[in-house]
Amino acid sequence: MNLLRWMKSGYAVVFGAAIGVYIGIKKPEYVADIAPFGTFYLDVLQMCILPILLTAISLGIGRLIKHSEDNSFIIKLVVIFICSLLSASVVGFTIGFLFEPGYLGEDAEIIGQVIYDLSEPDLQVDLFAKYVPLNDESVLKNLFFTLVPPNIFNALSNGYTIKILFFAILFGCALGALQKQAADHIFLTFDAIYQAFSRLVQWLMYVFPLGICGLLATNLSQIGTQAVSAMALFVPMVIVTFIVWFGLMCLVMKKTTGDFLGPLNALKEPVIISLTTSNAMASLPSALEAMHKNLGYDKAKIDLLIPLTFTLCRIGPTLYFSMATMFVIQLYDVDMSFYRYLLVIFGSVLAGTATAGSSGVSLLTMLGIVSGPLGVPLDAVLVLFVVIDPLIAPFRVMAIVHSSCALISLALPKSIVFVSKNTGAAPEPLDSEAR
Amino acid sequence: MYPFNLVYIAALLCGYLASSVSTADELTKFIHAKPLAPIVERGILRVAMYEQDSPPFYYAYPDTVAEFRREACNPEGKAVPVKSLNDGTPFDCELYYSIDNSILHTESAQVGGLDVELIKGFAQKLGVKVSFLRTADSLDDVVSMVAKGEADLGISKLSITFNRTTKVLFTKPYIKLRKALIVNRTLLEQIRCDRTKEQAIQHLKGNVGVIRDSSYVTYARQRFIQDNPTATAKSWCNTKAVTVVEFDSWEEVIKRLKAGTKTYNNQPQSIWQWTHKLFPGASAPITNKKHNTESSASCTGLKPEERCNPSERLALIAGFRDEAEIKYLIKNDKKLTQDFLTVVLENDFDAKGIALPADAYFLKFMLEVYFDSLGVKLTANNVILNYADVIQNITRFRRSGSSVNTHSTSGERQ
């Protein structure tokens, strides 16, 4: 029993993380042995996420329609979304503009070496093969078609987050429109599913120290050290920017909750999980719990807003994209004008938002949305961003998770049952608001 | 009368190879009165060669290598058996001194490369010395030297083209190289128009640099010159509009390409690309119309700057040559990968052969048999990336061939 309690303590997490970092950097030969723990932890966590996502959103929206009178927070939230995305982009742009990470000097040699080693040797083109005509697909049309799942079970089994989100919102609206008796029945069932999976996630925290060890070791061993050394200014600049942004968001939380350390402590778990898993959705259950139980926000609203902000309010990618674009622009020494700078800022917001539903390396290809109109070639340097991504992704995901929580706290009315400085708060009767 | 002779000789030669006699001396005796007589009597195989270098196919050893050889192999070329040069090429003192000295004529020792090594081996089999004549000031000049009888054969990675076959005889290709482009990534991005890179290459627009009087001038005209002079703005993306610019040497092409990387076309077309993406109905006004009017002919003449439009002359979108050259270039200056993309044209081969006088069927047949018997697979990747291995294979064959005087090698018995 003591061991179990210890495994859930902060010491065990720090211990596990330290071992993971040590193995990942100094003893890569042991990575293969320890990696399965990380994979196991992440798999079990992801097993719980889709049911929680579906039930949380359906429940949230259904309850809001049934009970809530004041829905003005939604408009407020949309405004906050747009403002925060723009400010993230401006911050990234300014940092990139001031520190000029793309003017490399001698490091250009190493960058060339890295690109040569990692990219395809050459492009093979048949000059006289039939030409495929211009692709007239519009971004808006594409987005619309990715929204609607023709088969919800297919979407669920493939884990298409955006499609599931769309379905869950519609389904929640339909639930809200049902007769009270029938609706109550299904709310109860959904709540049971939701809680059961939440309980599973809580149990999983016992093996978190092992998981963190495996995940960190795997992540760190994948970093292309040569590329990191070549981008000696860019990588630290990005990480420091993310940390500064984290501090800014903490200040936002201080304004909304009136306390600085309290919310920091309350959101400790989702932040650590996001840093280790580099997966925003993996920290969804703990973020839901932290916002509701530790910070005392209305459960129905939290259940709806947290998954929505995680997928749609892409603060992390936006901030990163504006810095990465500045890097590429400086690398290719592109002539810039005021107009082009504006293009970087708005393009990064657009590209960041387009990453909704994608994660990992595929997310990086969205960088083309900014670089394309600027006429900057991306394909050569994309491999650089791919090899340094194991180092960047944790911070990018942390920015998504933490900023989302902070922005929601800004949009929602101040919490009533705020349990400050007590992460182990006793769970409240969850059904109380549902009836 | 002549074809009959040829068949007769060929049959004899086959029989000769099938039998277990293979010393160079006996071969020389055997062919003494036949079409090889001039070479054998002279005792020297005269090889025409382009005066400029094209490593790793043919090049003069730089001074450093000569120095290395002096230091590594003195005295009597036996001090260090096998060493590597800085570029990883194996350097075999015994081979270069005892064997090369026996076959190389005067100053020819200072050249190397794939073509050169192949011919050295052949000369050794033939039992004659070899002299590389590096006076040709263009590749076509190599061909005409052979045609005029000033040389017994011509090397220098010669493309087998129809024009050249009217003057000389070519062996069947010893290496087939695909044609390739080295493309400025930034300029390519500007003509990409939302398409894939492959499609943009198919509809290349801009200036393409080639070597003057090389077969690539014709190749480029056949492949890239604009295909629809009346193209409207809307179909601009889907038409080719290339100006072929000739340069005195490949180095000039590269220099001009590098100069173009930092010049940036500051066109305000970006916002249109976006509206085009969001609302495909809206037509994007593309302002690059100038390409349509000014790309009708390639710029020829002594100075390309004078004949071509001055506003366009600086930026080359691509250089056009064979894949080996382009891979070699990138391999030796990896920094280029950031700014340049290498593109290999599929199913578009440039066959390389050895040029021979128009009536030298006998020599052609011998050369072909020699290439086949080497058992080395020559491809661009092999030659560029595993050059050391390829050369070692060829020279190993030479050593085994020279050391066996009375016994046959297993390879030739089959």
Share in helix of chain A: over 70%
Overall geometric form of chain A:
globular
What oligomeric assembly is this protein in? Answer: heterodimer
Total beta strands of chain B? 13
Q: What is the alpha-carbon Rg of chain B in Å?
A: 25 Å
Order of helices and strands of chain A: HHHHHEHHHHHHHHHHHHHHHH
The profile of the biggest β sheet of chain A is: none
Share of residues in strands of chain A:
under 5%
How many separate domains of chain B? Answer: 2
Number of distinct beta strands of chain A: 1
Low-confidence stretches of chain B: 14-24, 263-312, 402-414
Based on secondary structure, the structural category of chain A is mainly alpha
Mass-distribution shape of chain B: globular
- Percentage of residues assigned to helices of chain B: 40-55%
Q: Can you give a write-up of this model?
A:
The complex is a heterodimer of chains A (435) and B (414). Chain A has 21 helices and one strand. Chain A has helices at residues 2-7, 10-26, 31-67, 72-99, 107-118, 139-147, 152-158, 161-177, 180-204, 208-221, 225-230, 234-257, 261-266, 268-277, 284-294, 299-312, 315-331, 338-354, 361-364, 368-374, 379-411, and one strand at 123-125. In chain A, helix 4 (72-99) packs antiparallel against helix 12, helix 4 packs parallel to helix 17 (315-331) and helix 5 (107-118) packs across helix 21. Chain A has 435 residues and is mainly alpha-helical. Chain A has one domain (2-120, 151-425): Proton glutamate symport protein (Orthogonal Bundle), CATH 1.10.3860.10. Chain B is an alpha/beta fold. Chain B folds into two domains: 2-168 and 357-413, 3-Layer(aba) Sandwich (D-Maltodextrin-Binding Protein, domain 2); 178-350, no CATH class. Chain B contains 21 helices and 13 strands. In chain B, the strands form three sheets. In chain B, strands 1, 6, 7, 8, 9, 10, 11, 12 and 13 form a nine-stranded mixed sheet that branches. A two-stranded antiparallel ribbon of chain B has the order 2-5. A two-stranded antiparallel ribbon of chain B has the order 3-4. In chain B, helix 11 links the parallel strand 10 and strand 11 (241-247). In chain B, helix 6 packs parallel to helix 20. At the A-B interface, helix 5, strand 1, helix 6, helix 18 and helix 20 of A face helix 9, helix 10, helix 13, helix 16 and helix 17 of B. Strand 1 (123-125) of chain A pairs parallel with strand 13 of chain B.
